[in-house]
Design a protein that fits this description.
The protein is mostly helical and about 400 residues long. The chain folds into two domains: about 150 residues, no CATH class; about 160 residues, no CATH class. A two-stranded antiparallel ribbon has the order 1-2. The longest helix has about 50 residues. The N terminus and C terminus are likely disordered.
């Protein structure tokens, strides 16, 4: 499944779950053959290891037979479904990588692995069910609200199983609780992915707007005039440099093609300073989507845009006392200042990104202290597991 090539004379291993005679429901891409198992990204390597582990668990369950023939046939059907899920996950991590296909492959992989984990919980022995109840309870407490009926009943079942044998219906309840926890985890990760995509789209459009202004200033410099005519000076102060006066008192006459571009470059420098300063607050995330990076990238084109708008407001005498700038150095200094000031706008995006990341692995709501029928719940620490099935 993972591209391990065997010697020509080596016999092909016979896995019962591979020869089921099933027709694929999904048209799977052909898996490229290679000399070694290389997946190129960290999450694919971790997923490959997880698939191998789940395959071993499935083989273990396949070796354990039951006396009831009807139950045995049901177990065979479930094992066949497990093999299908693992096959889908294997194709997802080995499929050729295309542009913007990484998120889809990641979701496809972990969705199938989590479904496999749930199905294995329904097949395991009573001894394994007792040992796994603690792990299931950990997922339930991380991703389900304290008042959720499944969480309440799963906590009671796990507590009872510590001293007594499982009762009829306990297995089904734990299976439902684990499935609901994985669904809640998927919803949390989807919110992170959605916000990351929104930020990248916003970054693209802001960058497009800044680039459009730079092109406009290049071809029509007089229409986006950023030059000043300081009193008592023999030159016009423009962002790209001082221009000697030639008797014309119209500032747009001295506008240069690179004025807007130079101003936006100053804004980019100011935004870069704020990004560097914000690195001290950036923490790693266990989610597979680089949300902090998406929030940081938005600062650069926003800084370029705020620098242009700020200098344009000074040029229009909108800010009292700053109607005239004496040199191009002053213009660039204000451009850098306005570029750094983009943090006033983007700090709300940073706060939203931190809030979204903190919600991963944490129950949606906590019980209100002192409310009737509630008991104090110890605070959860750490982040939930988002890329392990």
């Amino acid at each position: 499944m993972f591209g391990r090539t065997a010697k020509p004379d080596a016999p092909k291993q016979d896995h019962s779950h591979e020869q089921t005679g099933r027709t694929n429901v999904v048209q799977l891409p052909k898996i490229p053959k290679g000399p070694s198992r290389v997946h190129r990204t960290a999450w694919r390597e971790r997923a490959a290891a997880r698939i191998l582990y789940l395959e071993q668990q499935a083989d273990r369950e396949r070796c354990r037979a039951v006396e009831d023939q009807a139950e045995q046939r049901q177990r065979e059907k479930t094992l066949e479904g497990i093999a299908r899920h693992l096959e889908e996950a294997g194709h997802a991590i080995r499929a050729p990588r295309r542009l913007f296909s990484g998120a889809a492959a990641l979701e496809r992989t972990w969705a199938n692995l989590r479904a496999t984990d749930v199905m294995l919980l329904g097949l395991c022995s009573q001894e394994d069910l007792i040992s796994r109840s603690t792990d299931v309870l950990g997922y339930v407490e991380q991703h389900l609200a304290p008042g959720n009926p499944l969480r309440v009943r799963a906590e009671a079942v796990a507590e009872r199983m510590e001293v007594k044998e499982p009762q009829p219906g306990d297995r089904g309840l734990l299976v439902l609780a684990l499935s609901a926890s994985y669904d809640a985890l998927d919803a949390e990760v989807r919110r992170v992915r959605s916000l990351s995509v929104i930020l990248r789209i916003a970054t693209f459009f802001v960058l497009l707007g800044a680039a459009g202004l730079a092109l406009w200033g290049w071809y029509c410099p007089g229409s986006l005039n950023l030059c000043f005519l300081p009193k008592g000076e023999l030159h016009a102060a423009c962002p790209s440099g001082e221009v000697p006066l030639n008797g014309n008192d119209v500032p747009s006459h001295y506008a240069q093609h690179t004025d807007v571009l130079v101003t936006e470059a100053g804004g980019l420098a100011g935004a870069a300073l704020t990004v560097i300063a914000s690195l001290r607050r950036i923490q790693g995330t266990s989610t597979p989507y680089m949300l902090p990076l998406s929030a940081a990238l938005l600062k650069f084109p926003t800084g370029a845009l705020t620098a242009f708008i700020g200098v344009l407001l000074i040029r229009g005498a909108f800010i009292p006392g700053l109607s005239d700038l004496d040199s191009s150095a002053q213009i660039m200094a204000w451009a850098v200042t306005f570029g750094a000031a983009q943090h006033v706008v983007t700090r709300f995006v940073d706060a939203r990104a931190r809030e979204t990341l903190s919600d991963v692995g944490r129950a949606p709501t906590d019980p209100v202290p002192g409310a009737p029928g509630t008991e104090p719940v110890p605070a959860q620490t750490g982040h939930g597991r988002t890329d392990d099935a």
